Amino acid sequence: LDAAFRLPVLVRAADLLTPELRVPLPDVVLALPVTPRAFPPAAEGAGRALALDGLDDCLCVPAQAVPLPDGPFTLEAWILPEALDGRRGLVCKTESSEYGLFAEDGKPAFSVHLSGAYATAQAAEPLLAAGRWQHVAGVFDGARVALYVDGVLRASAPAAGARTRNALPL
What we know:
It is a single chain. The chain is mostly beta strands and 170 residues long. It has no helices and twelve strands. The chain has strands spanning 9-12, 15-17, 22-24, 28-31, 73-79, 87-94, 98-104, 107-114, 117-122, 134-140, 144-149, 152-158. It starts with 8 loop residues before the first strand and ends in a 12-residue tail after the last strand.
């Protein structure tokens, strides 16, 4: 670790949206309870990114460290995949409950478990590319789930209800 190393934080950002205006609310910054030795070794050329091998590496954040109330939310991540075959969890807190960003053979998806079933927005075609940084975001606005890749809406689906909770880590 060098002087530029910073432990990860979770930033919860929100805007109050009305038909007439958008009011940004103060960000909430939550420290994640991890220690540097908990991180897998960084891959060569990874810079400041967390490098995971896609097999048995992960970063687990305890459920109590991610206090997400019911209602609208956005889940997003920057990814640099090495491979995209099969189904892969990108950022997940799922097990017949909660939410997650996934990729299946390069097709990204965002799922939220609402009132007993998953509402999913999944791209119809492979949009993710190995070896390239991409931004993936899932948005639940209370009426639909939407999937964005690099800021472009790629899929959406109707979604309403209370989120099914679990005590699993993110």
